[in-house]
Amino acid sequence: MTAAGTTANGALSFPPGFTWGTATAAYQIEGAADADGRGLSIWDTFSRMPGKIRRGDTGDVACDAYHRYPEDIALMSALGLQAYRFSISWPRIQPGGSGLVNQRGLDYYRALLDELAANGIDAAVTLYHWDLPQELQDRGGWAVRSTAERFADYARLVAEQLGDRVSRWITLNEPQVSADHGYRTGEHAPGLRDNVIAVQATHNLLLAHGLSAQALRSVTPHTPVGITLDMHPVRIAAGTQPGIVEAARLATDAELNGLFLDPLLYGRYPLHARAALVPGPELIADGDFATIRQPLDFLGINYYSPVFLRAGNPDDLRRNEEPARCELPGVVEYRPAELERTPMGWLVDPEGLYDLLVQVSDAAPGLPLYITENGCAAEDYVDPDGDVKDVERVSYLHQHLDAAARAIKAGVNLAGYYVWSLLDNFEWGWGYQRRFGIVYVDFETQRRIPKASARFYSEIVRANAVPPYSEVDA
Ligand code: FCB
Description:
Layout (H helix, E strand, L loop, with lengths): L4 E2 L5 E2 L5 E5 L2 H4 L12 H6 L17 H15 L3 E5 L2 H4 L9 H16 L3 E7 L5 H5 L6 H18 L5 E6 L1 H10 L10 H25 L5 E6 L3 E3 L9 H21 L21 H5 L5 E5 L4 E5 L9 E3 L7 E4 L15 H14 L5 E5 L17 H19 L4 E7 L18 E4 L4 E4 L1 H12 L1 E2 L2 H5 L1
Parallel strand pairs: 3-4, 3-14, 4-5, 5-6, 6-7, 7-9, 8-10, 9-13, 13-14
Antiparallel strand pairs: 1-2, 2-17, 10-12, 11-12, 15-16
Helix pairs in contact: 3-5, 7-9, 8-9, 12-13, 13-14
């Protein structure tokens, strides 16, 4: 069981050995889109479709991390960071998603892993952060089961070639977003808008997790294997009796969280989710749930913001209300006016993180949890002193780390935290119009400038403790 306490100066301390890192993803930072035999991914295709990405931005150059990784690792090292979560681009390893292996892609990641090791930084490797090889999409993408099998082949290959240098495997990043944004709403690659396909993708992504976990374990049996889910605490707005919206809370939680968490933990789809979202028996082969429910060594949680519910009329919406996605009568989703919002429009709610950690910990007692992403966009700019004083991000991180420390104190087995993100980068549909880094990137020159939040985070990492939020800022 982990332990956290209070230090002599009142700071909330994290347990010894707590992992501190930052996170990135291949398509968002690497650039070098046609270097060294890389194949096309669905994001290369999607970002070229008119109107899909702000200002027509693409990941062609991004942060040019493919060439600049030594500088980025030196920055992490100077900040005292111990861990780096990055993703491997499948089309760099297998340009067509199956068969042919691109040695130069493997060489690149081997060099990156060696550089991390030389700096004493542990590698948490995500195998899939949304950049499906385009050739596999042309054959159906996540709508077809064979993609899950190809993913397991790729996972095995990566484990065989690079596994000796990896501290922790994360099979998939946010499969809920892959299925929903990629295939249902179309706001992400491949940009399809078809619920039937999104439901197929839901099941095949889960299957891909299970099959790849088996493959990874067969090659690197001692390396922890987990998955990263985007999780959304469902909270009840002040003034609404919880009982009135309880059915909606269960349904919303099932849809946003349970659809992926329940098969992983319990080997079944959640009871309360809308039927239209749940894979039916025609998609589920014998043994699928046993495959999906591989023992997890840890669970990665990405937390940004919650969903609030309150009693209301979806046909007569009030300010800050939206129809509830669960479609139950008498309830609406609501954005409390008193909570801040980031430039993404996302509510800032550290208590949501606390509640979420306690909820997941209750659902999976003792399972090590990692916050594999947390952070915020801000309107960052370089001031006349050449500095980026991102006070909003300092405050956001401070509040969320305070919540994380309190959750540990309450018994949650939280083992590490990765800020999203090390660098400003290609923020999917927003292109370069949203900055999430603790390091500023001047995309004209590729100059990196650590922001105030990088200095703040570095102090916390070195102290392994966070000053209580209220004492400093109340
Ligand atoms: C998450 C993604 C990550 C980044 C952040 C802001 O959903 O995993 O790549 O875009 O949001």
